[in-house]
Amino acid sequence: MDESTTLDKTVSSGRSLIQSIKEADAQRDDFPGEHLIVLGTGLLLLWAAARSRSTLGRVLAGAVGSAAIGRAASGTGGIARVARVLNGGRR
């Protein structure tokens, strides 16, 4: 089965493509340091956005960098989990 057929079935079944990707991502295991790598990438992109001369470059790098930092902070192995562990499980 090719990708277009899978995509067509996903769209026709009423499930969004984004929801399907989120479910697949939630089922996979994290690898050690994954969220730290994503955090570093996001920070580098924000730094690049600040140094970019073009408006489009600033907007794109800033948006992708912000999304990467948000991704690093969320999830089961994210920065939020590290903060909970360091705070002794308190909210």
Shape: flat
Number of helices: 5
Characterize the largest beta sheet: strand count, sense, and whether it forms a barrel: none
- The residue-averaged pLDDT reads 79
Beta percentage is under 5%
Could you walk me through the main structural features you see in this protein, from its secondary elements to its overall organization?
Helix 3 runs antiparallel to helix 4. The chain is flat, with a radius of gyration of 17 Å. The protein has 91 residues and is mainly α. It has helices at residues 3-12, 17-27, 34-51, 55-73, 79-86. The protein has 2 domains: 1-30, no CATH class; 31-91. The N and C termini lie far apart (46 Å).
Properties at a glance:
mainly alpha, flat, 91 residues, 2 domains
Quick take:
With 91 residues, this protein is an all-alpha fold. The chain is 73% helix and 0% strand.
